[in-house]
Each structure stands twice: as structure tokens, then as C-alpha cells.
Amino acid sequence: MARRLSDTFTTADSAATRWVSAILIVMMVATTFTTQRQATQKNMPASALEGPMANQQKILMYALPFIFVITGPNFPVGVLIYWTTTNLWTMGQQFYVIRNNPTPGSEAERQAQGPQGSEGQEEGARHRRDLRGRHDGHARGAREPSASAAQEGRLAFAA
Fold it and tell me: Where are its TM segments located (predicted)?
């Protein structure tokens, strides 16, 4: 009657292990679905939610939990605990990132802006363009490499 993390629902000797496994399977399926739904529905622009790739993503969002319901009884209890806690951690991370840094054009961005209206949208677009420019190496003080430096394999930047 030893209870080990390597026991599975199908190989468990005790009812307690089977109950724990069943609860963990349900939690794993629910957290997997919720994590996928949170990422796709809340933090993706409307254009990304249309088309063949979006349809495939939707199918996977519903199919994978169904597959886990079927295969879950063969997973060891330790794997079920790991998977469920990892999903919960990921949900928390996604919640934080979506709330504090929403994808431009997503539902999360519209909710974050609240009643600011078009002025806030224009300011946000301007800020994103500024960041993009800095990210591409076009920050203030940078200049194009000289022809001779480029030929020699060196880059010259202003200090």
C-alpha cells in the first residue's frame, strides 16, 4: 500500500491514489485549457484570430485537453503535479504580462486603455514606433557605418 509519485491512476493500489490522480488530471486539463485560452483570446490582435492558423490553434486548444483526459490516467502522479503547478505558474506569468504589456491591437490593450479613447491610442502608437526605432539601432547618436569600415568588417558608431 505504498504511495509513490510514480504510481498512476491505472496502476494504483489504493483508492486514495486514484482519487488524487483523478483530481490532478481534471486540474491539469483545466489549467492547460485556461492557459491556452488566456494567451489566444486576451492578448492577440483581432487579425491574428482569423485565418487557417487561428482555426488550427482553436482546434488544438479544445483537442489537447480531450487527449489529456484519455491519456492522463497513464501519467505518473509526479508528472501530474508538475504539469499542474507549471500551468498555474504560467497562468500567473501570462496574467502579469498581459496586464502590464498587452499586445498592440489586442483586447487586453483596449481594456488597459479604458476610457482614454483615440488620444491614448495615438500616444501608444507613437510610443511603440519610438521603441521600434530604438530597437532597430536607430537611436539618437547612431549613424550608418562608413563604407571603408563596412569593407574592413568594422562598424563605426558615434559616441
Answer: 16-34, 59-83
pTM greater than 0.70:
no
63 is a domain residue: yes
Question: Dihedral, CA atoms, 87, 92, 94, 95, nearest 10 degrees?
Answer: 140
**Coil, strand or helix at 56:** helix
Which carries the bigger pLDDT value, residue 135 or residue 126?
A: 126
List the domain range (segments joined by +) for residue 64: 15-109
Contact 28, 68 (CB under 8 A): yes
d(CA 146, CA 155): 7
Distances (CA, A) of 70 to 12, 28, 126, 130: 17, 12, 49, 49
What value, to the nearest 5°, has the Cα angle with vertex 30 and ends 25 and 34? 150
CA distances from 147 to 64, 135, 137, 140, 142 (A): 54, 23, 18, 21, 15
